[in-house]
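Inputs:
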Amino acid sequence: MTARPPKRIDPSGVSDLPDRLQEIIRRRNTVLGPGYQFSETIPVEFVSGFGAHLVDREGNDYLDAFNNVQGVGHSHRHVADAVSRQIASINTDTRYPQEALVVYAERLLATFPAELSKLSLPCTGSEANDLAVRVARFHTGGEGIIVTRWAFHGRTREVASFSPMLGAGSPLGPNVRLITAPDPRLCASEQSLENYMREQVRTAINDLNRHGYRLAALIADSAFTSDGIFTHPVGFMQAMVDEVHAAGGLHIADEVQSGFAQLGDSMWGFSRHGVVPDIVTMGKAIGNGFPISGVAFRPEVSDEFGQKVSYFNTLGGRSLSVAAASAVLDVFEQENVRGRVVVNGATLLAGLDTLTRNSPYVSEIRGSGLYLGIEIVKNRETIEPDPIRCENIIKDLRDRRVLISRTGPAGNVLKVRPPVAFTAADVSRLLETFAAVAKLLL
Amino acid sequence: MTARPPKRIDPSGVSDLPDRLQEIIRRRNTVLGPGYQFSETIPVEFVSGFGAHLVDREGNDYLDAFNNVQGVGHSHRHVADAVSRQIASINTDTRYPQEALVVYAERLLATFPAELSKLSLPCTGSEANDLAVRVARFHTGGEGIIVTRWAFHGRTREVASFSPMLGAGSPLGPNVRLITAPDPRLCASEQSLENYMREQVRTAINDLNRHGYRLAALIADSAFTSDGIFTHPVGFMQAMVDEVHAAGGLHIADEVQSGFAQLGDSMWGFSRHGVVPDIVTMGKAIGNGFPISGVAFRPEVSDEFGQKVSYFNTLGGRSLSVAAASAVLDVFEQENVRGRVVVNGATLLAGLDTLTRNSPYVSEIRGSGLYLGIEIVKNRETIEPDPIRCENIIKDLRDRRVLISRTGPAGNVLKVRPPVAFTAADVSRLLETFAAVAKLLL
């Protein structure tokens, strides 16, 4: 299995696009180069946004069920006002005392189990995972890393070395071992899923040791989203973590995708599994589109690193970043975000299930809260992936102005991942639009 | 030589601080942990800023000759307005067409030699250097990295592995070789400095090869700031780069410190040396405190990486980041920033030279534009470093409300590094204040 090729769009191939857009694409290809891709679908130029809505240059309103970085909503007024106020007054780094930074850290840590009592604030999810693993290596003295087979944790060189989703062009480290994500269809029962996952971790540790690597960490997305979204059952993780701890390693929960109430059941994906990680990384919705990320540590894991190495990020945890992130927490409190995710997510899941239950091309609907996956296959018996049909559904939805994406190693799992700002009306619109494209599933 | 220990401040040891500040420090130590340090001096809580001025809670105005991230000035109105406008409308990532992103890339690249024609936009200087070296490794197939002896390029695991300034707690990679910074006192003439640097690069390459590493890159801060600030003479770098190219490696110019006109002579520090790097990294002043960074590439170096690996940074190059960075370029054009740096830097250098010329404790003043270093020694013959006297000067200046810092492996080079917004009046105030503390140099 290799990564899907980059979507570099050649303007000569999209002559049905407006001239303006072709010109932007041409100039963009000139200055940004081939590393910059477009979203799955034919590009749309958005000029404003609100809630889960993006508006294009012609004034068309798209329902955004894909971009969840702006978790509390595109251009949310409370966040915008907080950033605007802050940037007009002061923006010092963390080498200066800022009461707001301390208050923010206290508020954010209060959403975690008490064991996770120390916070660092880098700028991106990649930096958060890079720091987490750097601390894990320092603390354990080990180098071995265990991730899932199609994991994506970011793009620094270190993090790319344990992000197999990046494909063959980006080599995995010799210290990295892959395990299969917790797909319950691979096992006869919940108990056997736990054993299956435990056994895989044990095998990976043995193989690392055999090659001279002691374990540093198991790092896992708590919803296994890039592997295809595996949210149920829960409860098997403690067995994996026990193996990791027995080998002297740490459990790092990557909550960049699953955190900030995206899964509805709880603020953090790991909580659903009843485990308390050693390190937790956060990104995306933490700043509603402002570049900030976070790492929460058990102090016994991070304090020595702090004393002997230290961590300073010039652009992380500045007054402006803290203003954005604090405003996001305000909105979570003021707008009952988590409660709404639970209700709207359940309605959305039930509606999608009804629409696809009898399709010969849908093998499974998975997910929790507002992170849902619909697995598209050639037939339900063989569950052979059908990424082409998957892409056609995405295109058809986009033509009807609803944005979703896809995930999984074969690219055949429709990814419905709206911002947590998604309302009941948004759910209705998504379901109505999905009903109109469901002919592709008959 | 080891790194200076972290400045973790225990509130019980600073009982002369206001209660409010002691309380912030106590709570901060609880939630942020020991990895978070304070600035060199006793902490001051700043609540607003303008130009090169920071204002504390009591309304005292400090002259900021240290924090140059807000290059065009603290809370600059034009940047603040641009960010405020943008955050209220739209903030998409680079997977969507944004005309403003393309225009920004064109404008920024126009400040570079034509060979550097492709741009990527991460969020931090660390991410920029990490990407640069990742591309260099991919392009060359080599792994060897050459840096200066006290280099600092950032804090991802990869970048920390070639940032010896981080000290013994942060291990260097086995693929990393160190060379001494271009201190002209080590050589009899300019020609011999060139030969000295060339020979060091050659020796490093040979040693890398002997250990099985082919060269990937020489990465160098164009003003060698962490090594103690070495800006003169120029002209020796081409010889180093020739050696690097002959070995199949790339030259990465780290302009996080020396870029955006900080050195006055030119927008980019490498231009002073008459070289055209293969990759250039930018940070700090690029966003005036907004988390954005940049990497400019020769396309022949980056295009294959772009095609086969790609690079997407969820939080890099978004509409909001581009709005901040574009506004910074506006100010550079509107306010003749570079011209002012040249004039004010020259006045500052001449004034400091006059004030310290006869001191038995000042061995040298170095620097260019608004990046100056004053080397403090126990006596001028032995040039034995005197970090204690250095620190006392910084403290005395801080008590008189002028902020500077120090650099170099021994921590004995006063670092005068104001934002490029520094005015003629600011220069006068700095010189007057420095005159008042010059008794420490008699």
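The domain at 39-72+337-441 of chain A is CATH 3.90.1150.10 (Aspartate Aminotransferase, domain 1). Flag for discussion at group meeting.
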